[in-house]
Amino acid sequence: MSYTPNIIGFACQWCTYAGADLAGNLRAKYPPSIKLIKVPCSGRVEPEYVMEAFAQGADGVLVGGCHIGDCHYKNGNHKTSRRMMILSKLLEDSGFDAKRLRLEWISGAEGYRFAEVAEEFTKELQEMGPNPIKGGK
Amino acid sequence: MAKVGVYVCHCGSNIASVIDVSAVRDFAAELPGVVLARKDLFMCADSGQELIMQDVRDGLVDRVVVAACTPRTHEPIFRAALERAGLNKYLFEMANIRDQGSWVHGQDHAGATEKAKKIVASAVGKACNLEPLEDKFVEVTDAALVIGGGIGGITAALELANMGHKTYLVEKQPSIGGVMAQLDKTFPTNDCSACILTPKMVEVYNHPNIETYTYAEVDDVEGYIGNFKVKIRHKQTYVDWKKCTGCGDCASKCIGKAADEFNGGLSERRAAYIMFPQAVPKKAVIDMDHCINCGGRDIGTLPKVNQKTGKLILAPCEKACPAHAIDRSIAYDPNGDIQEVEVGSIVVATGYQVMDKGWFKEMAPESPNVITALQLERIISATGPSEGKLVRPSDKEKPHTITFVSCMGSRDEHFHTYCSRFCCMYMIKQARLLKEKYPDLVINMHFIDVRSAGKDYDEYYTGARKMGINFFKGKVGGLEMLPDDKLRVLAYDMEGGENIEYVSDLVVLATAVELPADATTLAQKLGIQFCGANFFRELHPKLGPVETATEGLFLAGCCQGPKDIPDTVSQAKGAAAAAAVPLAQGKVRIEPIISEVITELCSGCGICVPLCPYQAISMRTVEDRPRAQIEMSACKGCGVCTSACPSGAIVLHGYKEEQIFAQIEALTA
After folding, report:
1. Which ipTM value was assigned to this complex?
2. Quick check: A17 and B668 CB within 8 A?
3. pTM of the entire structure?
4. Which distant-in-sequence residues (6+ apart) come within 8 Å of B483 by Cβ?
5. Interface touch A76/B638, C-beta < 8 Å
């Protein structure tokens, strides 16, 4: 079954959001499934936002930050990494496929990498099918 | 109730050729909170901005959403327009439908249009929840820090100091000068490098507005634009520089030996040494890694007494020093001393290193007669180990055939994909200088292609071709070591369409330019990011070439990417001018996108305190209970504390919870 997944991406403004802009400059192609919400740091992404996105029916959520060691705010991404790891476990425990949540470190120089991730994630979500919560909304 | 105006930009055909702008406009007009939606060919042009300003002045809208390019470049432009029209500039939100829309979804016009609608809805959702914010202004410390004492740092420091600003120049080596001090002559004019550089070195050192700290490193940086607190570590020299006259007597008596870094390891220096004869400042340093503590004179111990004569047994360096600058009895701290300075802006000009030949196993790196171009520079320099005479390192004999190999590690997917930019030109320079001095010398140069873009550069290259220097287009596949330390060169000549082989006495590798390893540590201290080629990343590749993502922090020279001396000097002057702006203004604006504790909601748990990377959060007592508070000038607005607060008592202005929830809702509608 092929459907167009709806992916919400929380992107830190220094790295992943800038990487997505660079993908544009490079005219890299990826499916229009992903829409970004700009945050100052991936450390601003509360697990609650991810849960809310899923609860509202998003098929996938991408959390994008700077590479470890490259955080504009020294170590915000360390916190993101731990928070999302715990959140993944919680999602699994509650019977929700945690593969719908993806954490990626994409720098402002990695335009093609952003496009690649968007493409890959879209394909994966197409294989997984729509978010099962979606209908219950 | 918010009155949102949505303005959709065609960006010429950049957006409109993919996205149905009218459809997006019509969709936006129906969104809750939106009172009007317009479109224009170029929203950022005067006419587009005027459209917004007129609607604001007419009282039609009090929130503005522009659907166009990226806020990273254009948000300030539209915010300024709002301000001119009399609306708080933070009541603005951008929908990025170009860089993250039309430019990447050209293959799917319908999909791109649908995505654009969602992104606009998300921006409108956030805009409805925006609140007016006020900029804060802080006083600026009228001083600058320049890190790196090569030609880039020297130039930046001189510019800043000549504009009247106190400037601290920090260099990790014992002398300023950088790589340029190691060069013999410079293209395309063949000026003697020392002749044009050393006067600048002296000028910096004696400038009344400049404090030059050599053999020093930046240990830590705190603060923000206008008010950086910098810890400078003065490394231990073990010589009293106040007394040292730079005579070099200690070096001539010292027995400990080390490879001379200044000569690319082609000669030896002593453990007590002066970096090079034209060093500024001309001061000696004792390198403890190579000091052998003659006479048992460990640092910090009292001298033994000669049983026969009753005299103290001193180390040769101590005895030699006529100025009594060396006293090994002093218990020096090997970590050196920390000095704190306060500055308003910082220029980073930490330069580069060239790759070591050891990386290139096919190029017989074990042969002493395979050298890097920087080593050849020392060989042909009058201040070098052979005083400018061309000799092979193996036997100090003059070579008959010399080979140059370009692009070693540059334009090579195994190492660096980028072009190191100035290797072609310095190889041509070296070949020309050698051909002028030794007309009989056979010079073979192998290039992928010759890159000689620059003022008078191509003429310099064409001139070299007329001098009887042999140019081959094609790569060198490898070198074989032969008896007598000669080398067989195995290459391909693209123009002749054949493999070529010949014997060479000396092979020069133009190894790639890269960041020194310790630059990474410095970048982390400063909060500098890296670009794909692993140099320091500028704010914008075209319009912000000296700025960084951190306000008040600027880049100059090769730390930002490979560049030759003219380009480094130009960029350094640009960086100095940019760094002088906050100093000249006297006050800088601090964006109010920072976190704040709502005291009534705070439970005093203290979870936020250790999370803050800037130690901006502390606990205070409010009505006998502990409550968190955030020091506004130290907060940089990352929102890590906001996300962690279990009571929801911390808000990050500009990224408040209800704003983000509104975006999620719009994107999943």
Report:
1. 0.97
2. no
3. 0.85
4. none
5. yes
